Amino acid sequence: MDTKKLNVKGIVPPESKRLMGQKDLVVSIRDYTTYQFKAYGRNSRYFRALAEKKKIYATSCKEHGVFLPPRPTCPDCQSPNMEWIDYTNQPAHIKTSSICAFAGRAFIDEVPFVLGFIQMGEAKTVMSSVVKLSEDPAENTRMLSKLMKERRYLELNGLKVEPRFAEKPLYTVRDLWFQVADKNFLDSLKETLKPRKS
Amino acid sequence: MKFKPREVAVIGGGVIPHSKARPDLNITDQCVEAYNMAREDLTEQMGKPFSNAYIDALVVSYFSDHFAGQLLGEAMIADSLGLNPKRSYRAMGGGATGGIGVQNGYALIASGLADLVAVVGFEKMSLVDTAEGNEYIALASDTDWDFANGGYYTAYYAAMAAEYAKTFQIPVETFERQMAEVSVKNRKNAQSNPFAQTSWLNPWCVKESKENVTGYISVEEVLESDYCATPLRLRNCCLMTDGAAIVILASKETAQKLVDKPIWIVGTGMGTDTMRPGDRYDTVGGLHDYDLVLPHEDKATQERYTKLRYPGQNSFRAGRMSAKQAYYMADIKNPLKELDVIEIHDAFSSSEIQTYEDLGLCPYGKGGEFVMSGAANMDGELPINPSGGLIGMGHSVGSSGVWQIFFTYLQLRGDVDKVFKKWNERFKPDNGNREIPRPIQIPNAKRGAGHSHAGTGSHVTYSILSNVESDLERIKPLAGWASKLIRRPN
Fold first, then answer.
1. Do B61 and B87 have their domain in common?
2. Which site among B66, B149, B226, B281 would you substitute to test the A interface, given the most A Cβ atoms closer than 10 Å to its Cβ?
């Protein structure tokens, strides 16, 4: 909540919708700004590789297969003997996805964006990640708007994608995103840029 | 060892008018207001004053310390209800918080720790704006891997809905139309409920808005509302709410001593799944592998399930687990025929469709056809969400699972119209002197259920109620159940 916009000290103005028209009630404002650290523990290895080597690492249990996001212990047998394997060049596709036209506070300025669940190689699990149709934000937005307007958004699912890595990593999952690699699909979204026959 | 839990009844309850904001009530006031409704109702039933002296223990359910701006709020609630120094604690599990609270109350009595338990749930979501609220809720997803990507709950459910549509090959137009039907149905039902956030009967409803947040809604209005996260549109989503609800549970002896119409809890089930929807394996034939086929599902359906990828991101395994347990415990052999009403956790209209299937009301993949057939309507084979559900009532997270049980209880007591009318009269003239548009009582309802759901199906509770006393004889304890679900290695 941006308390500055409210332009009051300690109390919301009587016309605020928060008061539901009850002007004699008090709703006061509490400044709750804070930041918090994040400890990745054994998964630090994943975030280091992502940020510093532009590599995607998965973990593998001899008995139970490959996990991405990596699991430092196997969720099936709880073995800590997991092998870290380079999964960067494994084939990747969107298993399922949603075009987010709304979001939580931290990401509200970035809408619309695609939250995809990415299947890589033989991993047993899928990893959530931002998916882009274009590196150009304006074009990306235009393409997503078209997919929503024409109700074609389900076409995203199944598309091949390629990993992209942040130039200035922040050691979060956002250091990685995926670019749709299906040229025909991307071309089908660019068509509207041509003038229509009247 | 032959073990039988003590029998437990719902004997009363209460709820407050839900609203986008209730600045007139703080969190303790919300709970006390719900309690006072329960007290009044119990006093009428008992013919003598009900008071907190009857209560042995209190379970408080609220989801978010963030929304409440208060940790250990349960201490304040117990204090406000005058229950110190009795046993009291908080039960919490995301969106299923209320359902978990009710099942905790059940367990306290069934195990012999108490004879009469109050379960009160609340949430106060109006203290932040919607984007902040979405962020608070999203903190109940994996903050390393999902939330940090911009994930929030509508998007997770949306991606699961998209996967569902793909798995069962439902065209996008058909799917959006089916989801709209759920919203329209639940909003229509809510119009008879003076406690529902979207009802004009509610003195605290939003009266002026460009968006259609109060009153009936049409299929077109749903389909014309903006996307929140494809395929979910604004009107496919429940609303954030200030609300509270309470149910009063009692052992059989206590219940029969106090009231004439105890409603029995005859089955409780609970299932879980991974926090991250992406971590759920796509197992071909998974329903068979996990022993999650329901006994009443026919051979052709069971055969089809051998090829079905399950659960992956298309269905809620926790919901199916809760149903399998609850039906076993309550000895329900055909839920569609034996149950008369269900309150389903419709945080999104997609999840109501998916839940029909988890609960075995129709085979997997047929949930959309189920709602389009009218089976879930008030005059259908099995009315779903006569209260309006989360879409109609608003999702007062910690209290949603509680009012589901309260409204189901009123249906089975046969008094829902009477209680709603009484309170609607009391809400005049602040509700514009409106009358209840149509009755919401399901005639001769005998058995009902409440389904409470957390995360993207990380926790699901399912509790079955009955007004047939002989159903108590049919209860089978889950301990000792010869199911693969609780099988131990030899």
1. yes
2. B149
On whether residue A2 sits in a domain, the answer given is no
Cβ contact, residue pair A43, B144, below 8 Å: yes
Same domain, residue pair B246 and B120: yes
- Residues A16-47 have pLDDT tens digits of 888 998 989 999 888 777 788 989 999 999 99
Q: How far apart are CA B202 and CA B191, in angstroms?
A: 9
Place of tokens 């709970």: B31
In a domain, A174, yes or no: yes
Token pair, residue A143, equals 């393409």
What is the model's pLDDT at position B490?
A: 59
Based on the domain organization, do B120 and B198 belong to the same domain? no
Instruction: Tell me, yes or no, whether A32 lies in a domain.
Output: no
Q: In this structure, are B60 and B187 located in the same domain?
A: no
Provide the domain count of chain B.
2
Predicted pLDDT at A195: 60
Beta strand pairing call for B8-15 and A65-67: unpaired
Residue with tokens 């089976």: B375
pLDDT of residue A8: 52
Residue B137 falls inside a structural domain: no
Residues in chain B: 490
What is the strand order of the sheet A65-67 is part of? A65-67, A57-61, A83-86
Contact at 8 Å (CB) between B109 and B251? yes
Measured from the Cβ of residue B208, the count of other Cβ atoms closer than 10 Å reads 7
Average pLDDT over residues B123-149: 93
Is residue B99, in this structure, part of any structural domain at all? yes
pLDDT at B141 over 80: yes
Q: Do B187 and B41 belong to one domain?
A: no
The tally of domains found in chain A comes to: 1
Nearest Cα neighbor of B478 from B327, B310, B253, B365 is B327
**Mean pLDDT for the stretch of residues A116-123:** 98
Is A97 in Cβ contact with B134 (below 8 Å)? no
**Residue among B145, B137, B150, B144 nearest A39 (CA):** B144
- pLDDT(A197) > 90: no
- The answer to whether residue B404 sits within a structural domain is no
- CATH number, domain with residue B388: 3.40.47.10
User: Which structural domain, as residue segments, surrounds residue B183?
Assistant: 163-240+271-398+440-475
Which residues of chain B does A19 touch, with a Cβ-Cβ cutoff of 8 Å?
21, 23
Nearest CA in chain B to A68: B279
Q: Which of A116, A148, A152 sits opposite B227 (nearest CB)?
A: A148
- Model-level pTM greater than 0.90? yes
User: What's the pLDDT score for residue B215?
Assistant: 96
- Whether A198 has a pLDDT exceeding 60, the answer reads no
Are B329 and B415 part of one and the same domain? no
A64: domain range? 41-193
Query: Which residues in chain A are contacts of B145 at CB distance < 8 A?
Result: 69, 127-128, 173
Query: What pLDDT, in 10s, does the model give residues B334-347?
Result: 999 999 999 999 99
Q: Which 8-state DSSP code applies to residue A53?
A: I
pLDDT value for A3: 47
Size of interface A-B (CB pairs under 8 A): 160
Query: Does A103 contact B23 at a Cβ distance shorter than 8 Å?
Result: no
- Residue A134 counted as domain residue: yes
My answer on whether omega of the bond before B443 falls inside 30° of 0, hence cis, is: no
* Nearest CB to A117; choose among B132, B229, B313: B313
Contacts of B27 in chain A (CB under 8 A): none
* Side chain identity at residue B124, one-letter code: K
